[in-house]
């Protein structure tokens, strides 16, 4: 018999027979990029494909220009922002005074959750704290500068997390800004060329540990490094804890914004830049975070209808992004009183109605050998491993009713073509070894399975 701690004969038996034996030890990650970057990304994130970003904070009160309102007004003193404040607020009014005006009286987390569910999104990321430093939860480390002590007097993070988890199957995530524009401790560290670390040790890192243990988000979307390196933020130390010992260690995903130089190089999935859409396949999982409002992440009262992307553009972004192996994170900005403006709600519900018809070409797919068609522009391919189907998402319905695809290799008697949302098989002709011509059904507008972008499902093509 083996001694204490040994396997013994009974312990070795499953191994000898090739059967499941003792539970395997969980891998431990070291606080180095080499170790952390080797962690496999939890599978749910790649399968999800589509999420909703929510930028909400004190910038939602002036709701003018940009969520960078405070910086543009006080630091850069941009003329439109200075004029806006001089015109609409009394002399001496400070950004901190917006705190009491951030009221959220119409915030109904159940309604938000229902809209998110209707969008077809599989995850949501809420700004727990933007660069202004105001937290949407009652942080112990943000005394009197949070939504529980000031303004709504409510834990907005907790309320949305509860509603999302009770009413939807979405994964709940949190955005967190590492730096804060005007925090004295951060400014002192910056003056010291980040050789001191008062701010991360007393504010930023404790907040990160707090939101993970309190709300157990499955996405930590970090941002705002303030030009400081990851060593200043102790990002690798935090991520090692997150992956090894946190309550979400098995399911959590992270992005790549953990200090100057880490973007598009380290972390979980890559974001590379805002509105990143390379249009070709990348070797690493990535996300296209973009805004329905072309100019701002936060709500803008001064936005015009032309400032909002139409649904056709959103479908195009989704098809392009997923075809190239990315996820789409589509941003909305609620109002200071807690409403999702109807234009955002409409866009989200439109995407959801499109996904009800075409979701098989999006969810759980992998990139195909070709991303876009070489003959007909505006055609993007995805592959469904479970069904063995290739989906061709085409953004323009041809006037002729004939769609030519240059990429698929079809075989007579084997290949079948269907239109998502339309039951009958479609007729097609092969163009030699590669390419095919497909006769689309003659449909009235009322008979169309959807209005913007359509999916051909191809079986037995190569």
TrEMBL record:
One cellular component (GO) term of this entry: lysosome
Name the UniProt record assigns to this protein: Alpha-L-fucosidase
Its EC number(s): 3.2.1.51
Site (May be important for catalysis): 289
Keywords, comma-separated and alphabetical: Glycoprotein, Glycosidase, Hydrolase, Signal
Subunit text: Homotetramer.
EC class of the enzyme, as a word: hydrolase
UniProt domain Alpha-L-fucosidase C-terminal: residue ranges: 371-459
PANTHER family: ALPHA-L-FUCOSIDASE, PLASMA ALPHA-L-FUCOSIDASE
Role played: Alpha-L-fucosidase is responsible for hydrolyzing the alpha-1,6-linked fucose joined to the reducing-end N-acetylglucosamine of the carbohydrate moieties of glycoproteins.
Source species: Taeniopygia guttata (Zebra finch)
All residue ranges annotated as the Glycoside hydrolase family 29 N-terminal domain in the record: 24-360
Segment forming the signal sequence: 1-25
Gene3D superfamilies: Glycosidases, Golgi alpha-mannosidase II
Key word Cell membrane present: no
GO molecular function: alpha-L-fucosidase activity
Known catalytic reactions: a neolactoside IV(2)-alpha-Fuc-nLc4Cer(d18:1(4E)) + H2O = a neolactoside nLc4Cer(d18:1(4E)) + L-fucose; a neolactoside IV(2)-alpha-Fuc-nLc4Cer(d18:0) + H2O = a neolactoside nLc4Cer(d18:0) + L-fucose; an alpha-L-fucoside + H2O = L-fucose + an alcohol
InterPro entries in UniProt: FUC_metazoa-typ (IPR016286), Fucosidase_C (IPR031919), GH (IPR017853), Glyco_hydro_29 (IPR000933), Glyco_hydro_29_CS (IPR018526), Glyco_hydro_29_N (IPR057739), Glyco_hydro_b (IPR013780)
GO BP, one annotated term: fucose metabolic process
A UniProt-annotated Pfam family: Alpha_L_fucos
Family the UniProt entry places it in: Belongs to the glycosyl hydrolase 29 family.
Lineage, top ranks: Eukaryota, Metazoa, Chordata, Craniata, Vertebrata
């Amino acid at each position: 018999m083996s001694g204490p701690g040994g396997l013994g004969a009974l312990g070795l038996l499953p191994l000898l027979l090739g059967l499941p034996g003792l539970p395997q030890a969980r891998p431990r990650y070291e606080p180095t990029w080499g170790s952390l970057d080797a962690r496999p990304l939890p599978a749910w994130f790649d399968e999800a494909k589509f999420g909703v970003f929510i930028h909400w904070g004190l910038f939602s009160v002036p709701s003018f220009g940009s969520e960078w309102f405070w910086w543009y007004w006080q630091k850069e003193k941009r003329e439109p922002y200075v004029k806006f404040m001089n015109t609409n607020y009394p002399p001496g009014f400070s950004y901190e005074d917006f705190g009491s005006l951030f009221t959220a009286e119409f915030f109904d987390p159940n309604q938000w959750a229902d809209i998110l569910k209707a969008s077809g999104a599989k995850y949501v990321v809420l700004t727990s704290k933007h660069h202004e430093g105001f937290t949407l939860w009652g942080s112990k480390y943000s005394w009197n500068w949070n939504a529980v002590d000031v303004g709504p007097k409510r834990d907005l993070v907790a309320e949305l997390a509860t509603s999302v988890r009770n009413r939807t199957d979405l994964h709940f995530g949190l955005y967190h800004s590492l730096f804060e524009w005007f925090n004295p401790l951060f400014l002192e560290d910056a003056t010291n060329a980040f050789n001191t670390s008062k701010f991360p040790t007393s504010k930023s890192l404790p907040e990160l540990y707090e939101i993970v243990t309190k709300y157990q988000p499955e996405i930590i979307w970090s941002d705002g490094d303030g030009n400081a390196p990851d060593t200043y933020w102790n990002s690798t130390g935090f991520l090692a804890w997150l992956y090894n010992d946190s309550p979400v260690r098995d399911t959590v995903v992270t992005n790549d914004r953990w200090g100057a130089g880490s973007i598009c190089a380290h972390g979980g999935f890559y974001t590379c830049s805002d509105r990143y859409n390379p249009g070709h396949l990348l070797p690493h999982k990535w996300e296209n975070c973009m805004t329905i409002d072309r100019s701002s992440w936060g709500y803008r009262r001064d936005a015009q209808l032309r400032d909002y992307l139409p649904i056709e553009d959103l479908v195009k972004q989704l098809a392009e992004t997923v075809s190239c192996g990315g996820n789409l994170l589509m941003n909305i900005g609620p109002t200071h009183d807690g409403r999702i403006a109807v234009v955002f709600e409409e866009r989200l519900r439109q995407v959801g109605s499109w996904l009800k018809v075409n979701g098989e070409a999006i969810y759980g797919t992998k990139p195909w050998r070709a991303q876009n068609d070489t003959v007909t522009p505006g055609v993007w391919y995805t592959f469904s491993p479970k069904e063995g189907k290739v989906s061709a998402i085409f953004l323009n319905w041809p006037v002729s009713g004939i769609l030519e695809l240059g990429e698929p290799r079809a075989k007579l008697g084997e290949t079948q073509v269907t239109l998502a949302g339309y039951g009958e098989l479609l007729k097609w002709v092969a163009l030699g070894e590669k390419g095919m011509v497909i006769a689309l059904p003659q449909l009235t507008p009322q008979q169309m399975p959807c209005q913007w972008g359509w999916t051909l499902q191809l079986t037995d093509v190569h």
